[in-house]
Amino acid sequence: MFGPHLNQDMRGIRVRLLSSRRRHPAAKALLLVFGLFMMGALYSVVAPPVQVSADDTVTQQVEEGRALFAVGCASCHGLNGEGQTSGTIQGPPLAGVGAAAVDFQVSTGRMPMARPGEQAAAKPNRYSDEEIAALAAYVATLGPGPAIPEPAEYTPANISAEDLARGGELFRTNCSACHNFEGAGGALPNGKYAPPLVGLDDKRLYLAMLTGPQQMPVFSDEVLTPEDKRAIIGYLNALHEQPAAGGLALGGLGPVSEGLWAWIVGLGGLVFFAMWIAAKGAKAK
Ligand code: HEC
Ligand code: HEC
Question: To test the ligand 2 pocket, which listed residue (178, 210, 227) has its Cβ within 8 A of the most ligand atoms?
């Protein structure tokens, strides 16, 4: 019966209480302080730790790279990668070669070079992935150069038949002069050689094009776009994955040797066939 009245009274009291508190002179200032405090707390939770730890990891990696460089590379490339052009052990300056060149040279075992003066040959690599990353991070601080590419850049995904054909064409115009038809490798002047390109992973192929080791020209992204490079990689993969047609690889040395085989086998067969017909004809008479 008096329930609603009581409710109304209570509401009246509550409203009066709230409005009197809101009217308190310190309320506005307190609210402002509280707001600022919350923002500060939120910011300190969200932003700084991320930044600080990223910076820390990078500087730590560069320092680690610098230390590794001093031990394994400085004897030829100078303590600060400035290069060394006199004396018996020499190495080019490394400012501007980029992280990509270090990744390629060290992961293929070319660097550290065993003996100066020869072509730096690929050999088993002595560094862990983290150490290579550290060396690369350090050399990248010496001057701007190509960064290590992401998998999406060098993996030829969903490659079409046209891409493969284009890759083959690009390979024949840009690479086969040194690496031979089908990438079998070949000799170059002055005792140098272009290694065979069989069984190399996508990243190694991409890095070689991007950085142009030793006698090899650099194929920058202006010369061969990343897409072109992927087409070439796709072509090489397809070429070396598929078993040679006819079961005999003929050395994969291109039209000349393959023509020779066609000449010997094909013409030989024809001659044999002609002799057989002649013999048969003679018997029939
Ligand atoms: C015995 C000497 C020697 C040592 C040790 C050595 N290098 Fe080299 N490095 C060379 C020479 C010489 C070349 C040039 C090869 C050429 O172009 O024929 C070279 C080339 C390079 C290149 C390619 C530069 C470019 O223009 O693309 C990189 C990157 C490199 N070295 C990094 C390293 C790193 C990293 C180490 C240590 C892990 C190292 N080198 C240790 C002698 C050395
Ligand atoms: C002027 C000759 C020349 C041309 C053109 C050339 N290369 Fe090379 N390439 C070389 C030489 C020399 C080496 C070896 C360098 C070394 O040992 O450091 C090499 C190394 C490589 C390697 C590294 C092989 C390994 O075992 O690590 C790859 C991959 C490669 N070339 C791919 C290509 C592709 C793809 C093209 C075409 C876009 C090309 N090259 C064009 C001369 C050439």
Answer: 178
Q: What is the CATH number of the domain that holds 69?
A: 1.10.760.10
For the chain, what is the mean pLDDT? 83
Q: How many CA atoms lie within 13 A of 140 on its CB side?
A: 19
Ligand of minimum distance to the alpha carbon of 228: 2
Classify residue 182: in a domain, yes or no.
yes
Query: The tokens 């009066």 sit on which residue?
Result: 16
CA pseudo-torsion sign 56, 62, 65, 70: negative
Task: For residue 207, give the ligand nearest its CA.
Answer: 2
> Which atom from ligand 1 is nearest to the alpha carbon of 112?
41
Domain containing residue 159:
149-244
> Cβ(110) to ligand 2 under 6 A?
yes
Residue 106 near ligand 1, beta carbon < 6 Å: yes
Does a structural domain hold residue 234? Answer: yes
Establish if 218 belongs to a structural domain.
yes
Tens of pLDDT along 205-235?
999 999 999 999 999 999 999 999 999 999 9
Q: What is the pTM of this model?
A: 0.74
For ligand 1, is residue 211 a contact (CB within 6 Å)?
yes
Question: In testing the pocket of ligand 1, which one of 76, 85, 190 has its CB within 8 Å of the most ligand atoms?
Answer: 76
